[in-house]
Amino acid sequence: MSHTILLWSLTYAQLALALAACLAGIRILKGPRAQDRVLALDTLYIAVMLLFLVTGMRLGSIFLFEAAMVIAVLGFVASIALAKFLFRGEVIE
Amino acid sequence: MSGLGTVPIWLSVVIAVFVVLGSTLTLIGAWGFLRLGSFYDRLHAPTLATSWGTGGIALASALLASWVQDRPILHELVVGFAVIATVPVTLMLLARASLHRDRMEKAAHLPPELLQASSDPEHTSQGAPSTSSE
Predict the structure, then answer these.
(1) What is the DSSP string of B17-72?
(2) Bias category Polar residues: which stretches (chain B) (predicted)?
(3) Where are the domains of chain A?
(4) Sequence spans of domains, chain B
(5) What is the third-level CATH fold of A2-88?
(6) pLDDT of B72-99, one tens digit each?
(7) Smallest Cβ distance to B94: which of A1, A39, A68?
(8) Which residues of B touch A29 (CB under 8 A)?
(9) Chain B residues with CB inside 8 Å of A87's CB?
(10) The complex's ipTM?
(11) Across the interface, do B23 and A13 touch by the CB < 8 Å criterion?
């Protein structure tokens, strides 16, 4: 019973997060300006990181959790660098 | 598939509620991000994913790992904390960069009181890169 509850909720979560990543991808392709694409990339990072966490729960593996952590940190650094570039036209002053 | 069956029912219901809450909020945030009209509206939608979306899934993951490994596992909360603490910085910087770009090209959709950067002391120190000597 508990196995069924967990399996269905994790399957739903995987589908919802994959759909969220697809929506962010559509905004990357569509986004009228550069800041829309940067924000969409940030959303895509978050959705894929959560997808890694949920898949790690399902498989009971610790490696997916470490990948999710790396994605979280790198996503932050990438978004900050891109926003800084939009602001000043250069990253390191 | 290690140990999903050993979880008691009450804990599996709690975990399922957190997982479904987190993923649904993330999906709603992404959908709103695709659907809203201007950039300043769109900026608000992904915060659903980065507040309770990440928080719910990280909590559920920590609960499940703690039960399966039979000791408290707190690594997942580090991920949740990292996302919750860093995303506002990103969004703030993006909003200011977007405002800066709209001011540079005098965008028509900006309200007139936002067009002058000089009334805002924070922006005079950081803005106007065209006049700085870099």
Answers:
(1) HHHHHHHHHHHHHHHHHHH-SSHHHHTTTTHHIIIIIHHHHHHHHHHHHHHHHTS-
(2) 116-134
(3) 2-88
(4) 9-126
(5) Helix Hairpins (1.10.287)
(6) 888 888 888 888 889 999 999 999 888 8
(7) A39
(8) none
(9) 93, 96-97, 100, 126, 129
(10) 0.88
(11) yes
